[in-house]
Design a protein that fits this description.
The protein is of the alpha+beta class and 115 residues long. It has one domain: 3-Layer(aba) Sandwich (Rossmann fold), CATH 3.40.50. It contains three helices and two strands. Strand 1 (54-60), helix 2 and strand 2 (92-98) form a beta-alpha-beta unit. Keywords: Magnesium, Metal-binding. InterPro entries: MeTrfase_7, MeTrfase_capping, SAM-dependent_MTases_sf. GO terms for molecular function: metal ion binding; methyltransferase activity.
Length: 115
């Protein structure tokens, strides 16, 4: 019987964890932040974009460290600031985090208060 190994991140805490070893990913996220903001602002410019009272954000393949929540926070902040400039009520946000079942989602949820 062939055994297949599934790639997964190390748990969310400790020296070998993804959260402690994701500075490269954080650097890339910082580099693409202006592109993300521009894309979000382009979407908001479309009059049909904010017709819904709820905006859903999905991170498919999220990290267990702070990187995923950082990107989501940036999206929410960009939309909220744009709505204020347009004198519109910001929508309610629903965020969906999804990845392998073996990921340590508890670490992601523990970091929510800092966001």
């Amino acid at each position: 019987m062939e055994v297949r190994r599934v790639l997964h991140m190390n748990g969310g805490e400790g020296e070998a964890s993804y959260a402690s070893n994701s500075s490269f990913q954080r650097t890339v996220l910082t580099m693409v932040k202006p592109i993300l903001e521009e894309t979000v602002l382009d979407l908001i410019g479309d009059q049909t974009f904010l017709q819904s009272e709820v905006l859903r954000i999905a991170d498919l393949g999220c990290s267990t460290g702070p990187n995923s929540l950082s990107v989501i926070t940036n999206i929410i902040d960009t939309i909220t600031m744009a709505c204020k400039r347009l004198h519109r009520q910001p929508p309610e946000f629903q965020v969906f985090l999804n990845d392998l079942t073996g990921n340590d989602f508890n670490t992601a949820f523990k970091s929510l208060p800092s966001f």
